[in-house]
Amino acid sequence: MIPSQKPRATNCESCEFYDYDEYEDAYVCTMRLDEDEMYRFLQGRNASCPYYRYYDEYKSVHKQI
After folding, report:
1. pLDDT digit string (tens) for 2-42?
2. Which residues fall within 8 angstroms of residue 20, CB to CB, at 6 or more apart?
3. For the purposes of burial, counting CB atoms within 10 Å of the CB of 49, is it exposed (0-12), middle (13-18) or buried (19 or more)?
4. How far apart are CA 21 and CA 30, in angstroms?
Protein backbone atom coordinates (compact mmCIF):
# COMPACT_ATOMS: atom_id res chain seq x y z
CA MET A 1 0.00 0.00 0.00
CA ILE A 2 1.21 3.49 -0.82
CA PRO A 3 1.70 5.45 2.44
CA SER A 4 -0.49 8.34 1.28
CA GLN A 5 -3.48 6.02 0.76
CA LYS A 6 -5.91 5.56 3.62
CA PRO A 7 -7.22 2.05 4.33
CA ARG A 8 -10.82 1.57 3.30
CA ALA A 9 -13.48 0.92 5.89
CA THR A 10 -15.23 -2.44 6.09
CA ASN A 11 -18.03 -1.96 8.62
CA CYS A 12 -21.19 -2.73 6.63
CA GLU A 13 -23.54 -1.60 9.40
CA SER A 14 -22.40 2.02 8.99
CA CYS A 15 -22.34 1.95 5.17
CA GLU A 16 -24.70 3.97 3.00
CA PHE A 17 -25.38 0.93 0.79
CA TYR A 18 -26.35 -1.43 3.64
CA ASP A 19 -30.14 -1.44 3.68
CA TYR A 20 -33.08 -3.58 4.80
CA ASP A 21 -34.72 -5.72 2.09
CA GLU A 22 -38.36 -6.51 2.90
CA TYR A 23 -38.50 -9.41 0.44
CA GLU A 24 -35.50 -11.18 1.94
CA ASP A 25 -36.33 -10.00 5.48
CA ALA A 26 -32.66 -9.18 6.03
CA TYR A 27 -30.10 -6.42 5.65
CA VAL A 28 -28.23 -6.55 2.34
CA CYS A 29 -25.69 -4.56 0.40
CA THR A 30 -27.51 -2.59 -2.31
CA MET A 31 -24.36 -1.78 -4.27
CA ARG A 32 -24.54 -3.46 -7.66
CA LEU A 33 -21.40 -5.54 -8.11
CA ASP A 34 -20.39 -7.19 -11.35
CA GLU A 35 -19.75 -10.94 -11.44
CA ASP A 36 -16.01 -10.68 -10.74
CA GLU A 37 -16.46 -8.24 -7.85
CA MET A 38 -19.15 -10.40 -6.28
CA TYR A 39 -16.95 -13.49 -6.58
CA ARG A 40 -14.02 -11.72 -4.86
CA PHE A 41 -16.38 -10.40 -2.17
CA LEU A 42 -17.85 -13.84 -1.44
CA GLN A 43 -14.39 -15.46 -1.40
CA GLY A 44 -13.15 -12.86 1.09
CA ARG A 45 -10.30 -11.78 -1.18
CA ASN A 46 -11.04 -8.09 -0.76
CA ALA A 47 -9.40 -6.80 2.40
CA SER A 48 -11.91 -3.96 2.44
CA CYS A 49 -14.87 -2.76 0.44
CA PRO A 50 -13.94 -0.26 -2.28
CA TYR A 51 -17.51 1.13 -2.30
CA TYR A 52 -17.87 1.85 1.41
CA ARG A 53 -19.42 5.24 2.19
CA TYR A 54 -20.23 6.29 5.72
CA TYR A 55 -23.99 6.78 6.17
CA ASP A 56 -24.74 10.04 7.93
CA GLU A 57 -28.45 10.18 8.67
CA TYR A 58 -28.11 13.84 9.60
CA LYS A 59 -26.51 14.87 6.29
CA SER A 60 -29.59 16.80 5.12
CA VAL A 61 -29.91 18.52 8.50
CA HIS A 62 -26.34 19.79 8.24
CA LYS A 63 -27.21 21.41 4.90
CA GLN A 64 -30.18 23.24 6.42
CA ILE A 65 -28.14 24.86 9.17
Report:
1. 444 444 445 788 888 889 999 999 998 898 888 888 788 77
2. 26, 27, 28
3. buried
4. 9
DSSP state of 29: E
CA-CA distance, 39 to 58, in Å (whole number)? 34
Predicted confidence at residue 51, as pLDDT, reads 83
Helix, strand counts (H, E) of the chain: 2, 2
Residue among 11, 24, 19 nearest 52 (CA): 11
| All residues at 6 or more sequence positions from 38 whose CB lies less than 8 Å from its CB, including other chains | none
* Residue 35, SS3 per DSSP: helix
Three-state DSSP state, 28: strand
* Angle ∠(24,18,49) on CA atoms, nearest 5: 120
